Amino acid sequence: MVEYWFYDTQDKQLDAYLPALLEKCLSTGRKVVVQCVDDDALEHYDAWIWTYNDISFLAHGKQGCAFAENQPIYLTTQSDDNSNNADIRLYVQNTTPLTYEDMHSDMQKYERCIFLFCNTDKQLMEAINNLYSSIKQHDITLRYLRLHNGQWLSLDK
What we know:
Layout: E1 3-8, H1 14-27, E2 32-35, H2 39-51, E3 61-62, E4 73-76, E5 88-92, H3 100-107, E6 112-117, H4 122-136, E7 142-148, E8 151-154
Parallel strand pairs: 1-6, 1-7, 2-4, 2-5, 3-4, 5-6
Antiparallel strand pairs: 7-8
């Protein structure tokens, strides 16, 4: 059964946290599909995860690439795109469905669904809280982690 994990960065520096989260997912042998909010975000993260570190990079593909099924990380803007047959779906900022019911059937093909966001956007936080509450009504693994002084603290509500 799919698990839902929420990562609240508390600031707008998603770039600083996305590569580490992807590395952690890959270290478990899982593939990841990253859903970006739009084409600009997709292009930004595509460039970023190649260059975020001077001594390493994260191999990945993006929407429309050849051999998408072989990519350990795959970037897309499409909610139904799982071209790399990922085990984890990671939503980056503002790409969250509104309720558990909106996404339940689509998420059953994943082991984990991750939401990475910053809490500075009031409208986004309202959507995140509504989504969290709608998932909590079901008997499902649910985690809420907030970054505090460089550490992820569990704040399961």
